[in-house]
Design goal:
Layout (H helix, E strand, L loop, with lengths): L1 E12 L2 H7 L1 H22 L2 E6 L3 E6 L2 H13 L8 E13 L2 E3 L1 H12 L5 E4 H6 L2 H4 L3 E6 L8 E6 L16 E4 L3 E2 L7 H15 L6 E2 L2 H4 L9 H8 L3 E10 L2 E10 L5 E10 L3 H29 L8 H12 L4 H17 L4 H17 L8 H12 L6 H15 L2 H14 L4 H13 L3 H14 L6 H14 L3 H14 L4 H13 L3 H14 L21 H11 L4
Parallel strand pairs: 4-6, 9-11, 9-12, 10-12
Antiparallel strand pairs: 1-3, 1-4, 2-3, 4-5, 6-8, 7-8, 12-13, 13-14
Helix pairs in contact: 1-2, 7-10, 10-11, 11-12, 11-13, 12-13, 13-14, 13-15, 14-15, 15-16, 15-17, 16-17, 17-18, 17-19, 18-19, 19-20, 19-21, 20-21, 21-22, 21-23
Length: 570
């Protein structure tokens, strides 16, 4: 791959989808005629090279910025078929060449300017404008600064016709974007097309529940239906960082669905899987595949975003990137990591005081200190409750943020009915989020609704079996099973939690109590030794044994009896 300085022009047809809906054949014929008779001839006369053609849009490269500017003006001034209007963006910058294709900020800025342009307008960047001679530069007006999506610096924007204005007020959406391309029907049966489209539409709908993601609407992603397209071009065209694509193949009554998640910026694969089913109930199968795909890729997306945020300077990150960095520290469960996560989350809230997800995470971070017996930071539990209240009052809170807040209301304010109402809302908002089910399970344990708690905890593990926080779901299972007096299963669940996070005090306490109730003296003594090696100060009277999960009225004596039988020091 080679780098070079060049001028990139991006152009597209305004309202292409509407034109296709009104007259598909006429629009295609008009576009072909315009491309062959006008665009190609003008490119040749202005020394331009057509890099990409996307049906309703084109990317061209010019060695001279003046040639690009003259071409754009000539193209906008040309006779066009009725109803055909263009918008154009131009940028001079560095690109990466790979074969006959080009990538990088040079092409990204041009595409962002094109998307910002009004019909019949040309927008050029400040670097392109500075490259023009005085006469050509005088044809453009403006020069106002704009924030372009996924471009770290603000860009000066100049407009043609001079006197026209660009819409520079639209703030950049800092959320990572994902497009779900129409799943390919590989069956050779046109009647199966609706099934493939249905899966695609359902996945788009379910992903839209995650408000930290920007999900491209169906009408936009379906413009690529039936086309063989470079994923990086899809990302550029739709302005997204990730692309999900897949296929459906039917043989008799059996169906195989495959899917893969791709980083559109570099083409790397982040996740891939396949799902097999039987067409006994096509809609049930569609729902099952949708749920499995969504719950599989959501952790992959978060992991990719966390890794991305680590690679960038902290002071240049937006609020969501600070939040993702905080999450990566939160998962470590150490005093230092927790302190750093609180610092980063506080910075995120400084950037955006209404960031509900960050406020929810901040509340849970303070609970983490309480549960692990760490010294409070600042106002401690009071700060957690305050952060939780901000979430519950917010109209920007998604299901996960709401669950974080409800967990705080459960554990710290002990307002269990209010927390339960918030959990119901969180589950309705995002039924495929493992963390929501896990935290809802803990709330149900505290309400002594053990069977329901066990169901949610088990479902959380099924939804995200490799989740870095799955120890909490095993803890919820252990608690529910202990309340049901299924002590051997409770001990197994506590061991599952310790296998994920050996340093989590609550898991040790649950294992010791369950073994004590089973009268397994040798195993109980071994478990106590493990806890004392970790925290020699822990006794049956420590603050950790008075946490809400251990003080449910109908079960609190059983916990204490278990610790006593096991031989945990008083």
């Amino acid at each position: 791959m080679k780098r070079r300085l060049t001028t990139v022009l991006a152009a597209d047809v305004v309202g292409y989808s509407a034109l296709m809906d009104q007259d598909r054949q006429g629009t295609l014929a008009a576009l072909k005629s315009f491309r062959d008779d006008t665009l190609t001839a003008l490119l040749e006369s202005h020394n331009g090279i057509l890099i990409k053609s996307m049906g309703d849009g084109w990317i061209a490269e010019f060695q001279s910025t003046s040639d690009a500017s003259d071409f754009a003006i000539a193209l906008q001034s040309s006779d066009k078929p009725e109803g055909l209007r263009l918008r154009i963006g131009i940028h001079t910058g560095e690109v990466i060449a790979e074969g006959e294709d080009i990538f990088g900020d040079g092409i990204n800025v041009a595409a962002r300017l094109e998307a910002l342009a009004k019909p019949d307008q040309i927008l050029i960047s400040d670097t392109a404008h500075h490259s023009l001679d005085r006469g050509d530069a005088g044809l453009f007006g403006g020069g106002g600064q704009a924030e372009l999506k996924n471009i770290t610096r603000r860009v000066g924007v100049w407009c043609w016709p001079k006197g026209s204005t660009a819409n520079l007020a639209t703030p950049a959406d800092t959320r990572p974007g994902i497009a779900v391309l129409p799943f390919d029907n590989m069956s050779g049966d046109p009647e199966q097309e609706f099934f493939a489209d249905g899966i695609t539409e359902d996945i788009i709908t379910e992903l839209s529940r995650f408000r930290w993601l920007m999900v491209v609407a169906r009408n936009s992603s379906f413009i690529f239906k039936g086309k063989t397209t470079d994923i990086r071009q899809v990302g550029l065209t739709l302005g997204v960082r990730y692309v999900l694509e897949g296929s459906v193949r039917r043989a008799g009554q059996r169906v195989r669905i495959t899917g893969q998640l791709i980083d559109a910026e570099n083409g790397s694969h982040l996740w891939a899987d396949r799902f097999d089913g039987v067409l006994d109930d096509i809609f049930e199968l569609q729902d099952k595949v949708t749920q499995e795909v969504v719950t599989a890729i959501e952790p992959s997306l978060r992991h990719a975003e966390t890794n991305r945020s680590r690679a960038k300077p902290t002071e240049n990150l937006e609020a969501y990137e600070l939040y993702l960095q905080a999450q990566s520290h939160f998962h470590l469960l150490t005093d230092d990591a927790n302190r750093e996560a609180i610092r980063l989350t506080t910075l995120a809230l400084d950037r955006d005081p209404d960031y509900a997800a960050a406020a929810g995470l901040l509340a849970w971070l303070h609970i983490q200190r309480l549960v692990q017996g760490l010294d409070p930071i600042g106002e401690g539990p009071r700060a957690a409750i305050s952060a939780a209240e901000r979430v519950l009052m917010s109209d920007r809170a998604d299901g996960i943020a709401m669950a974080y807040a409800a967990h705080s209301i459960s554990m710290l304010a002990r307002d269990l009915p209010r927390a339960r109402a918030a959990f119901k809302q969180a589950l309705a908002e995002n039924p495929n989020a493992a963390s929501v089910h896990m935290l809802a399970s803990i709330n149900l344990c505290m309400l002594n609704r053990s069977d329901e708690a066990l169901e949610h905890a088990t479902h959380a593990i099924e939804l995200s079996p490799k989740d870095p926080m799955r120890h909490a779901a095993h803890i919820a299972r252990a608690s529910a099973l202990f309340q049901l007096r299924r002590y051997d299963e409770a001990a197994a669940a506590a061991r599952d939690a310790l296998a994920v996070r050996s340093g989590f005090v609550m898991s040790h306490l649950m294992l010791i109590a369950a073994l004590g109730q089973m009268s397994d003296a040798a195993a109980a003594q071994a478990a106590i030794s493990d806890l004392q090696a970790l925290r020699p100060d822990i006794t049956a009277s420590s603050d950790q044994t008075s946490l809400p999960i251990f003080t449910v009225p109908t079960c609190s004596e059983s916990w204490r009896e278990g610790w006593k039988k096991a031989g945990l020091p008083e």
